[in-house]
Amino acid sequence: MRISDLSRATAHPRRKIQNRRRPAGRKDTRPKIPRLCYSIDDFCKATSLGRTLVKELIKSGELPHFKLGRRVLIPLKAAIEFLASCPPARDE
User: Fold this and answer.
1) Which of 30, 34, 69, 87 has its CA 20 to 30 A from that of 24?
2) pLDDT tens, residue by residue, 4-30
């Protein structure tokens, strides 16, 4: 038995299925579900704010949040209101 035959025999059978991609030109037809809450990491990515700053805003009460189990979530409405209350950026 050659080494190449051995590697094929021991390869995970589902690996090829997991690595398949959508063919080019096909669109994702799944409905987009609107996001109702953001995790801290998702909020940081969406707003380009640092994790430490977001945690400080939550701790000070400036950014409303709630906990679901161990997870801290920021409601979409609270995120929009917080961003609207921020002063506009100054041109330097």
Assistant:
1) 34
2) 555 555 555 555 555 566 667 777 788
- Sign of torsion over alpha carbons 46, 33, 71, 77: positive
Q: In whole angstroms, what is the distance from residue 53 CA to residue 59 CA?
A: 10
Give the tens place of pLDDT for each residue, 51-66. 999 999 999 999 999 9
pTM of the model: 0.62
* CA-wise closest residue to 59 among 46, 72, 71: 72
CATH class of 33-86: mainly alpha
If one counts every other C-beta atom within 10 angstroms of the C-beta of residue 63, the result is 21
Judge whether 49 and 43 are in contact, CB under 8 Å.
yes
What are the backbone dihedrals phi and psi of residue 66, each rounded to the nearest 5 degrees, phi first?
-150, 160
d(CA 62, CA 12): 50
Classify 40 as helix, strand or coil: helix
User: For the chain, what are the domain ranges?
Assistant: 33-86
